[in-house]
Design brief:
single chain
C-alpha cells in the first residue's frame, strides 16, 4: 500500500524530475534511477507501477521535440527485439518474491555504474565498427528485460546505438522513440500482473506536473549541462540506492 504523504511526494517528486531530465535531455540512460530510489521506500512492484505511467508521460512530452530526427531502422530493430525480453521479465515477476526484484534492481544499478566507469577509463575495448543486426536484436531483448524489471533498459540500448555512428541529436531522438514504444509494450503485462492500482493512479496524478516540468527542463539542458556532471551525480545516487536495495533484499 502506498502512503501518499509529504515525504513520499518529496522523494518521488525529486526522482520524477530527475528521470524526466535524463529521458528528455541525456539519452534515457539514468532515468531508471527514479525507480531505484522509489524502491527504497515502497515495495518494488509498486515502485515500478508508479513509474511506468510517469515515464510514458515523459515520452509523450519529449517525442515532439525530436520528431523524425531518429534513426528509424535502429529504433525498429531494438523495439522488436525487446518484446521477448519484456515477456521474460513478466514471467519472472509472476513467480518471484519482491526481494528478488530488490536485488535485481540493486544489481542493475551497480552494474550501470561499473559499466560507465569501465568505459570512461578505457577498460572496455572501443571500436569504430558498427554492430551487426543480430547485435541490435540482442541489445533490444536485454533492454526489454532490464526495462521491465527496473526501467533500466538504457545501458544495453546505448551500447548498440553508440556503435552506430549516430550524432548526438539522432542518438537522443532514437532513444526517446525506442523507449516510448518499449514502455507501451510493458504496460499490458504490468496491468495483468496487478502493478497498477488505485494508489498508483493517485500517485501518477500527483507526480504528473513534476514529470512535465522535468521534461521541459531536460530539453533545455540538453545543450547546456555537461553530461559528465549529470552522470557523476547519477553514479553516486545509484551506488547508494543499489547497495541499500541489495542489502534489504538479502536481509
Amino acid at each position: 500500500m502506498l502512503v501518499l504523504d509529504f515525504w513520499f511526494i518529496c522523494i518521488a517528486g525529486a526522482a520524477t524530475i530527475f528521470a524526466a531530465v535524463s529521458k528528455a535531455g541525456f539519452g534515457s540512460g539514468a532515468s531508471f534511477a527514479a525507480a531505484s530510489v522509489l524502491a527504497l521506500v515502497v515495495e518494488p512492484g509498486l515502485a515500478l507501477g508508479v513509474m511506468l505511467p510517469i515515464l510514458m508521460l515523459i515520452d509523450v512530452a519529449a517525442v515532439p521535440a525530436y520528431w523524425r530526427k531518429w534513426d528509424t531502422k535502429s529504433a525498429l530493430l531494438l523495439v522488436v527485439g525487446s518484446l521477448p525480453g519484456v515477456a521474460l521479465g513478466a514471467w519472472l515477476y509472476s513467480i518471484s518474491h519482491p526481494d528478488v526484484f530488490r536485488i535485481l534492481i540493486g544489481l542493475i544499478s551497480i552494474f550501470f555504474v561499473a559499466w560507465q566507469v569501465a568505459s570512461a577509463r578505457g577498460w572496455i575495448a572501443k571500436t569504430e565498427k558498427t554492430l551487426p543486426t543480430w547485435a541490435g536484436a540482442l541489445a533490444g531483448m536485454t533492454g526489454g528485460f532490464t526495462s521491465f524489471v527496473s526501467h533500466a533498459g538504457g545501458p544495453p540500448v546505448a551500447i548498440y546505438l553508440l556503435r552506430q555512428g549516430l550524432d548526438k541529436l539522432t542518438y537522443q531522438a532514437t532513444t526517446v522513440l525506442t523507449f516510448w514504444a518499449i514502455n507501451i509494450a510493458k504496460a499490458v503485462p504490468y496491468a495483468f500482473l496487478g502493478m497498477f492500482t488505485l494508489d498508483t493512479l493517485k500517485a501518477n496524478l500527483i507526480l504528473a506536473p513534476f514529470a512535465l516540468f522535468g521534461t521541459w527542463l531536460g530539453v533545455k539542458l540538453h545543450n547546456l549541462v555537461p553530461e559528465k556532471l549529470f552522470f557523476r551525480l547519477t553514479y553516486v545516487m545509484l551506488l547508494v540506492t543499489g547497495t541499500k536495495l541489495i542489502w534489504d533484499g538479502i536481509a
